[in-house]
Amino acid sequence: MGKLDLNKKQKKDSLLNTAFDLFITQGINKTTISDIVKNAGVAKGTFYLYFKDKYDIRNKLISHKSSQLFSKAHNAVLANKIEKFDDSIIFIVDYVIDELNKNKSLLTFLSKNLSWGVFKKALINPALDSDVNFYEIYLNMIENSKCVFIEPEIMLFLILELVGSTCYSSILYNEPVEISVLKPHLYDTIRNIIKSHQKPEDES
Amino acid sequence: MGKLDLNKKQKKDSLLNTAFDLFITQGINKTTISDIVKNAGVAKGTFYLYFKDKYDIRNKLISHKSSQLFSKAHNAVLANKIEKFDDSIIFIVDYVIDELNKNKSLLTFLSKNLSWGVFKKALINPALDSDVNFYEIYLNMIENSKCVFIEPEIMLFLILELVGSTCYSSILYNEPVEISVLKPHLYDTIRNIIKSHQKPEDES
Amino acid sequence: MGKLDLNKKQKKDSLLNTAFDLFITQGINKTTISDIVKNAGVAKGTFYLYFKDKYDIRNKLISHKSSQLFSKAHNAVLANKIEKFDDSIIFIVDYVIDELNKNKSLLTFLSKNLSWGVFKKALINPALDSDVNFYEIYLNMIENSKCVFIEPEIMLFLILELVGSTCYSSILYNEPVEISVLKPHLYDTIRNIIKSHQKPEDES
Amino acid sequence: MGKLDLNKKQKKDSLLNTAFDLFITQGINKTTISDIVKNAGVAKGTFYLYFKDKYDIRNKLISHKSSQLFSKAHNAVLANKIEKFDDSIIFIVDYVIDELNKNKSLLTFLSKNLSWGVFKKALINPALDSDVNFYEIYLNMIENSKCVFIEPEIMLFLILELVGSTCYSSILYNEPVEISVLKPHLYDTIRNIIKSHQKPEDES
DNA sequence: TATGAATGAGGGTTCATTCAT
DNA sequence: CATGAATGAACCCTCATTCAT
Known about the structure:
Four copies of one chain form a homotetramer.
Chain A: H1 3-26, H2 33-40, H3 44-50, H4 54-79, H5 85-102, H6 104-113, H7 116-124, H8 134-144, H9 152-173, H10 179-196
The first copy, chain A, binds a DNA duplex (21 and 21 nucleotides) through residues 2-4, 7-8, 11, 32-34, 42-49, 53-54.
């Protein structure tokens, strides 16, 4: 990568980082492009060299940040040598919840903007260069388990939406209960969702 | 109610109705107060006699519209003489889903703004005059069933968040599957949630 | 007219006058709406209460200014009791040329934007309240003369375009000759145009 | 011409052609230098190696395009062996009108920017290499005719301005009449202009 | 000669809010 | 209570121009 390309990447990264910081501290609606460029230390026009508008940079951030999160979670699964499928899922969920609990701003940012549609774009068809394809990882996890599942996509969908929406309220507002109280109920429900999508093991 | 009070109520109602129409047709961000007052046929200043700002009128609408929805659903439960608790819950969910499927704009409006926090304000502490206290109804339903539940609030929370977030994606975008395909999975999960919160019947 | 209406008219007039001054001193392209409102002493938003954009106010000015000009010219015809048709036309043209020669900024403004199309809108269907319908006056002048003309509209068109385009160059740049030198050639041509559209007098 | 020079000429020509296309399709005001270089396939900076700004390239195009037009018209005069002076003028005017009628974009471009001043620069002192000096041709035509004219420059001026301004309206908007209806009136007027500038033939 | 990333002043426009009527 | 003209800060975005490569 030449000096020029490096400089370009630095500018773009600076914009992304600054935008993220502003989005989580003062919200997207209240963050202006003027704010972003001022804090990033670039000229206004430069923003438009890299992004279409505020929502373009937001979408790229969602993709990137959620990819990072799931990537870390999956690495932890590997590092801890979790074997069984349902344990892995619970582990990932628990890991993600703990991360979001530590980083509430990230939770605000992601949950307010996340949805299955964005999630698919973000994780299944990663937009950014280095981003990971989490759905593929998920399918591999299923394959490596000895079980067979019906409608694995719906199963993932149910789990993701349930976790995403309940965490938001519980972590940020302790409503209806704080996250530690919610967890057992949540994991119980997740195990039930997995169980009910599992084809009866065909033993012989 | 005097003639003047009636006139006042008409103006306020006109603003509420107009705002709702605009919110669901062009989104909240793109709806201006000018739009609202122009379509409502009142002067700009009048808006500020009744509401603080755009978000004030939005919150009142969320409360009102979700209250209406659950109220209708509950009446249908009574009319259909559903007896068992879990059947009632499924019936209500199914009723609400069908309503939202028929009225996608309402779904967009509610789901984009709904959360357990707002829901509580809306349904548990109804803001508007005629609005119904759904949480009380829910507790009555539990009481009338012969069962005992642990943490009924968490149970309701889990169900509401699960239904809310999955429906949004499924009804509006058929993602990951269309609502008719999703329903059995959803209801299965809901029954599991209920079952796992049910205290072992204490027979004697 | 109430106090409020009067105030409104003052604001609009102030904008029109200021815009005209700026248009003729620094050109339309280089005049910004910020300039106009700043000099008019009103807020930026006020501009948009009365005009759509810069071109809207320009068109209204063209109509108004050319109406004024022709109105003055025609009044001079009456005051000087010019009788014959061709003399009246020459008188009007001469009057207008002298006015434009005295007020070169007005010439710049009008000629750069005038065309038969705009002229028709401006003079034949006067947009502003008090503006005069010059085309009707022209037809009256024909009627009052004892002559009959074929295609009087084309005749007027030829004269107007000829005068408009030659004056611009001659008055502003003395190109190819100064206006006093041009005049006899021009009036000669105009008389020829009139003569060749005149039906042979039917004497008896 | 060396390879490098050829390359240079290609870049300049590409810019000229692209600019012309954009000027006539979307207007000068709405054409940006970015547009031009993007479509021409050269870098932004390259533009400034050949032209001062947008108006510089516009002026060069006006010169070139009008030179081309009159050159073609004059060649047609020669090819058709038109002998008499006034017939030649009418022929040229007619040829030019027909060309502009076939190529309305060119008419828009030229008429919106043409004036005697620009015309002189363009035709009398041709800017571009290959461009023809039409005024010299005109003077030759006069010389070859056996007639003597007073103020031939004014005569040409009157004709050009008359034709230019009336055609614009007639061809583009059919106002006040379509060009075929206008033509006889126009040519009649032109013949009158010529006749009135002709010195009484000095017979002996 | 040629490039094109970077600039940043300044353009048009919107709109929540006020306040004299 | 009701009005709606007026405000003006703040927004997004463009684009001519430069200059290090």
